[in-house]
Amino acid sequence: MVNILIVVILVYVGSASAATDHTHHEVLDENGDFTLSWKFDDVNIEFEAQAKTRGWLGLGLSPNGGMPGSDIVIGWVKEGQAYLTDRYANEKAQPPVDESQDWELLSGYENDTHTVLRFKRKLQTCDDRDRTINKDTQRVLWAWNDQDPLDDTTGPVYHGENRGVRSSLFLNKEVNIEDESLPNDVRSHDVLMSNTQVPSKRTTYWCKLFDMPKLQEKHHIFKVQPVITPGNEGVVHHILLYKCHTNPNRTAAPQEHPGHDCFTENMPLDWRECYQGSLLVVWAVGTGDISFPDHVGYPIGDEDDGGQVMMEVHYDNPLLKDGMMDNSGLSIVYTPELRQHDVGILAVASLSDYTLIVPPYAKDFKTESFCNQECFDAFMDEAGESMHVFGDLLHAHLLARKMRTTLIRDGVETVLAQDDNYDFNLQYIRMLDEEVIIQKGDMITTQCTYNSEHLNQAVYGGAGTENEMCQSYLFYYPRMNMSSCGTFPHPQHILSFAGVEEIEYSLDTPWLGWVNTIPVVKPDSMFNMTYADVVESIVWDQDKAERFSQHIRAGTFAATCGGSTQSNVDTVSYTKEVRYPTPTVPAAAPEGVCSTSTGTAGPQMSFLLPLLSIMSCSILSTL
Prior knowledge:
Blueprint: E1 5-8, E2 24-27, E3 34-40, E4 44-51, E5 56-62, E6 71-78, E7 81-88, E8 104-110, E9 115-122, E10 138-145, E11 163-168, E12 187-192, E13 196-198, E14 203-211, E15 219-227, E16 236-243, E17 260-261, E18 278-284, E19 290-291, E20 296-300, E21 308-316, E22 324-326, E23 329-335, E24 341-342, E25 344-349, E26 357-358, E27 365-370, H1 373-383, E28 387-395, E29 400-409, E30 412-419, E31 429-438, E32 443-450, E33 459-460, E34 471-477, E35 482-489, H2 491-496, E36 502-503, E37 520-522, H3 531-537, H4 542-554, E38 556-563, E39 577-579, H5 617-620
Parallel strand pairs: 20-24, 25-35
Antiparallel strand pairs: 1-7, 2-3, 3-4, 4-9, 5-6, 5-10, 6-7, 8-9, 10-11, 12-23, 13-22, 14-17, 14-21, 15-19, 15-20, 15-23, 16-18, 16-21, 25-34, 26-33, 27-32, 28-31, 28-34, 29-30, 29-32, 35-38, 36-37, 38-39
């Protein structure tokens, strides 16, 4: 007899409704036929699954979006009884029943249209066939069929086309704004594209200028809501909103103007000035509404406000669809009732250019970028305060598998935020359990791990979806004039891996063209080869890719330091050669992990961060 959980229930008639006592809710499929609600504490997680079927429904936790290796729960309601089985999958076949039944059925019912099941499980079960539920991205499998299993021992009927996968963060802390905590004076302003035709190419960055409400005094933005054109949810990947400085002569654009392709000759040059302003909003696919904690807000209408914003939308069109029109954008919710602190956004990132190289055939290729301590300290001195981080958005592209942001203080490394199961299609702002105070002398690092085993040529940093990035956007207060900091491997050190002795480049007299065009000076056998020629001549294999990662980390980096036009900090003076800050006490390995989950629980520290920041044009505009 199959080990199965049974609960006797009443059969309800009527439509299913979302669980009101759960804190998180998500629609798993495009038609809204499968919804999931949940809540969690330090030990357990409780789900309520609702599917538009009177047969069985199934939920799975997958290592990579496929069925093999998945932890699966399947349940149904039959003749007034609810059933639930804990299963697992080693292949694309009917999942066998797990010997250890770790899912606990709490209740269930079916009505004329839906089956609803409520069940819970420990976050860590110590069952080798279960996946740990932690703060990493989870690939969630869903499926159903309109037939119940015949009996307790018979497995579920094949789901057919009623299946799918969606990435989610189960343990993400959310900022919930209750009605009673809302300001008395709430206003909103929409910034939306106007019948913009999405180009039929993989990657497009589209820019549009907007006038903001004319305010006579400072206000605070406390919430931002995405407004996505129906049918374009899979194409609008992220949206950035820049606060422009005052320029009464800036090229105007009527409201109905569709905008321009960013960084092209068609975009007015004075629009690019907005990139030198502060980053007001960052929204990315999967984020949903953005709500700030009740003691912080983003300032508008202040003395630094030029009355205009520029919106940049990244359209990711992998199917190269033609004729798509878009009116997506953001609804900004703000109030004159000021909060205690102004929000700032800081980018800690590598440059997205040819200095970021991911070789082919690599299983775990690691790169790092870090904030030059001198740059950090200079802006803190100017502000006269430390930085309080409350959120973090990790960003890379398709090859990234793991990401994390760390703090190094007195040689001791602490993880602020991490995701050991990163998914490009889920760009979530991770709110920290507790705020982290960044002090003078601290170092912030962004670390990325890529998998390129399936490739036969290198991938470089860049704006395109099929290029790569490694960026962390920190949300913090009080707002400072610092917009970005980071490093990139020195081009000379990169090429020394291939035997280059000298190139026509230095930080004092940087090459004026693209880095990939830097000419080689020595040795004579490579004279007049370019940076790109040398890199592309490397014959890669898995061992060489690993040695290249170690070579980069052990060498010299060039530090970058970016600030707003209001700052008096001489950022150019902090563009210098630096070494990677290897901690004397690395971040501790996670404790109590006993499952085989590929996504580790990660240091469950009282730190975590979600907010964003500007880097430089090459970074900010390529989220």
